[in-house]
Structures are given as structure tokens and as C-alpha cells.
Amino acid sequence: MGNSVRVRIAPSPTGNLHVGNARTALYNYLFARQTGGTYILRIDDTDAKRSSDEDIEGVLYSFRWMGLDWDEGYEAGGDCGPYRQSERLSLYQAHVEELLANGHAYRCWCTPAELDVLRKRAQQERRPFRYPQTCLLLAAAERAARERSGAPYVIRFLSPREGTVDFLDLVRGNMRVDAAELDDLVIVRADGMPTYNFASVIDDSQMRISHVIRGADHLYNTHRQIPIAFALGFDLPAYAHLPLLTNPDRTKLGKRSGAVLVGDYAKQGYLPEAVVNFLALLGWNPGDTQEVFSLEELVAAFSLERVNRANAVFELQKLVWLNGVYIRSLTVPDLTERSVPFLAEAGVIAAENVDRTYLQDAIGLEQERLKNLAEAPSVLDFFFADDVTPEPKLLVAKKQTPADSLSALQRVHEQLALLASWDHEPIEACLRGLAAELGWKAGQLFMPIRVAITGKTATPPLFETMVVLGSERTLTRLAAAIDALAADIAE
Ligand code: GLU
């Protein structure tokens, strides 16, 4: 027997996916996977001025990047299509006719300018604006004249005026508003396009959506959609409204809050696993102290009962931490493949003929320290640079003179060049021996070597780095550093 759980994510195609919508998508996905239900993708594009296929692709890219595949809907197909609202206009039209015929909707010829005057007046009188039903109350002859005139009109839903609109939210419990608060919503605009609230109700019914799971910013809409559903004789889905996302200072997470688009996190080198894990914890609590969850673990652990009512605070530090956890958990070949686009983009490597073994060895050394993939170019560049041009003063050992540092580096070069095998132990034995011979602390000797071969003072462990660089690169760089220091001393 088929499972009756059917949920949907219904993005408006804006070219980008906001993290709030990504979180909503994830919760729908988890709920569907956990219940063996169907996860549907619909494109809500009737409110958009103009939405191109590219805008849609931008949104879909982020869903795919997060690994949230949909079973039915746009591009996937299914028996409730089309799944793009702008292709469903004739379906909406039939319901508009029905509502007009049974008196649940009416035409309104009020112009935007006329409505503006009323809106301003309401504002001055500090009361909420409600459409005064001017066109509903027109005398029959007047209405007939307007209909004949061909003047542009919108279609409004006649909202109930009495009683309450109630529903039981799976997260928030009983939700009620007084019908007196509702307005006669525009359901079809002057250009003939249905509005979101109208199209959504029809689609949710025709697509047999069992649970509408969406952000609490839609509570307002839900109270307006329910009377429309009743007027059309539809059964209601169950509703679950997810907590709003806020900044740590409790302000609404918005454009000014830094990156709020999933694509930006991808560009900043966050792994999809970390983003998914992070979003899962934004409004849902597992009920224990576990914080690291794979997508499969989330499917098993998730429940709507554990979705919080309180706003969820977006703590970027948590994402940074999770990203490190996931980076360290990857195999080196996997981390390498994920880093390649960043390295190529920064010009550190040429994506085509790069020595994969060398690249993997280098990345393996950085794996512990790497916080995100976007850092890869700046921490790995020295492995691929033709020369590293260290600053001469950084080649001077601590508490030693430039001249002594120079002869120490010369000894290092001589001794290393004699090594029979280029491995960790012989290199380490050689350099520690030299430090002892010079009467230096190991660190005094190692820092100038580090700088000479990498150009940096902070790198992965020295001997491992030298092994990966190989004897040829190491010795060439040491020789160049020696020349640079000698020239600096001579000046
Ligand atoms: N297109 C709406 C949005 O992106 C869908 C809301 C809903 O789930 O009904 O917010």
C-alpha cells in the first residue's frame, strides 16, 4: 500500500536559495524519507515578475548540492503536473469561475491609486488597512456597467467576517485568528495571474499534499489560505510551521546578516554535509547531546515533535566547527577532489594536468588545519609555486646573527644533499644532529628552514612537508634562500 505522506518544497525562483528555505526543504525531505512518503518540488512562480529557467536552475542547484533529491515534481515528473505554477493557469481558472459563481469571490475595479488613498488614510488613523468591499457593494447596474467597460479588474476572495479561523499546528498547537482580521485578498491580479495564496491552496489540494511544512513567516498566509480551501470544498492538509531564523542579536536573518544564500556557503568552501547538519539543528533538537549527524542519521532521528517553537539562532561558529569536523572526516582523495575547483579557480594549480599523487600528499598534510575549502589555495600555494621568495629577515634564526644563520643554512643544504633516502627519519636525524652540532635549539634551526622552503612561518609539520616537497624542490628552495640571505647581508 502506498504511503500517504506527501510533502512539498515550493520555492519561488529567485536564482538563489535562502538558508531559511533550505532549512524548510531539509525538514520536508527528512519527514518524507523517514515516513516513506513522497517529497515533491513545485515552482511557485506566479508572483515573480519574470522568472527564467536560469533562475529556477539556480535554486535547484542548491538543493542538489545539499543532496536533497525530490521524488516528484519539476523535472522529476509525476501524475499531478505540471509542477510549475505558471504552467497551471488553466487549472486555477476553473476554480476562479467556481468561486465567482457561488459568491465566494468578486471582481474589483478599484485602481491602485484609489487603494493607495485608502491605505494612507488607514495609516494616518493608525488602523490596519482592510479593503472596504467597495466593489462588492456596487449596485447591480453599476457593476454591469463596469463589466461592460472592459476596465482592468482584480478578483478578490470574500473572506468570512465572523467567527474564527482555527487550525492545529503540529509544532505550535492551536492557532486561531478572528475572521474580522482577515481582508478580502486579491486572488487574481489584473494581468490574470493568480496570487501565491490562491495558487498554493489549489496546488496543495491537487497534489494531495498531506503536510504543509514551512516557515512561521507563513502563519499569516495559512490563516488566509484556510478559508479559501473551505470555499473550494478542499480538505485541509496538516500544518507545521518552523521557527524563524534570527541572528545572534535576535534580529531577523536577512540580507544584512552576511551570507544567507546557500550558494554563498558553497563558494566559501563549506561542505554540503556541514551545511545540512547545521541547518538540521536550526529549529530541531535531537533530544540528546549529539551534534554531528549525517543525512541518513538525520532521517532516522528527525521528528516534527522535536521542532522548537522558539526562534532558531543562526550561530555561524557552529557551522565553522561542523565544517572542520566534516573536512577531517573525509578521505584524502575525496578532500582532494573537492578542493581542486578552488585551487584551479585561484590559479594555484591547472585543473587539467595536475599530479594527483603530489596534490593528495599536500592536502593530506593540511587536512587537520583546513577550516574550509576556500582556504585551500592560500595554505597549499607553496607546494605548487615555482619559487617561494622568503623575506630575508625571516631566514635569520632567533637570537642568532644573519651571518651565523647563513652558514647554518649552508650546512643544512650540504648535509641534506648527502642523504641517501629522502624520508622523515633520516631528515629529522640529520637536522637534529646539525642543531646539536651548532649548539642551537632545534626550533632555532627549524624556523629558517621552514621559511626557506615554504615562504611561510606557519605550515604543516616540517619533516612531513619536506618529504612531500621532495628533495629536489627542497634543495632548490634552500639554495635560493641562501642566495637571498647572502645578498641581503652583502647590502
Ligand atoms: N513560494 C513560497 C515561498 O517560497 C512557498 C511557501 C509555501 O510553502 O507555501 O515562501
Separation, N- and C-terminal Cα atoms = 87 Å
> Which spans of ≥5 residues are poorly predicted at pLDDT below 50?
none
The ligands bound in this entry are: glutamic acid
- Structure summary, number of beta strands: 12
Helix content estimate: 40-55%
Rg over CA atoms: 32 Å
Shape: elongated
Summarize the biggest pleated sheet.
3 strands, parallel
β-sheet strand percentage: 5-15%
What does it look like?
By secondary structure, this protein is mainly α. It is 48% helix and 10% strand. The protein has helices spanning 19-35, 53-66, 89-101, 112-124, 140-149, 196-206, 219-231, 262-267, 272-280, 295-301, 316-329, 332-345, 356-366, 376-384, 402-418, 424-438, 442-454, 462-490; strands spanning 6-9, 38-41, 72-73, 105-108, 154-157, 164-169, 173-178, 186-188, 211-215, 238-242, 245-246, 312-313. The strands form five sheets. It has a three-stranded parallel beta sheet. A three-stranded antiparallel beta sheet has the order 4-5-8. A two-stranded antiparallel sheet has the order 6-7. It binds glutamic acid (GLU). Glutamic acid binds next to loops.
Summarize the structure.
The protein has 18 helices and twelve strands.
Topology:
Layout: E1 6-9, H1 19-35, E2 38-41, H2 53-66, E3 72-73, H3 89-101, E4 105-108, H4 112-124, H5 140-149, E5 154-157, E6 164-169, E7 173-178, E8 186-188, H6 196-206, E9 211-215, H7 219-231, E10 238-242, E11 245-246, H8 262-267, H9 272-280, H10 295-301, E12 312-313, H11 316-329, H12 332-345, H13 356-366, H14 376-384, H15 402-418, H16 424-438, H17 442-454, H18 462-490
Parallel strand pairs: 1-2, 2-3, 9-10, 11-12
Antiparallel strand pairs: 4-5, 5-8, 6-7
Helix pairs in contact: 1-10, 6-7, 9-11, 12-13, 13-14, 13-18, 15-16, 15-18, 16-17, 16-18, 17-18
This protein binds glutamic acid.
Residues 10-12, 21, 44, 200, 214, 218 line the site of glutamic acid (GLU).
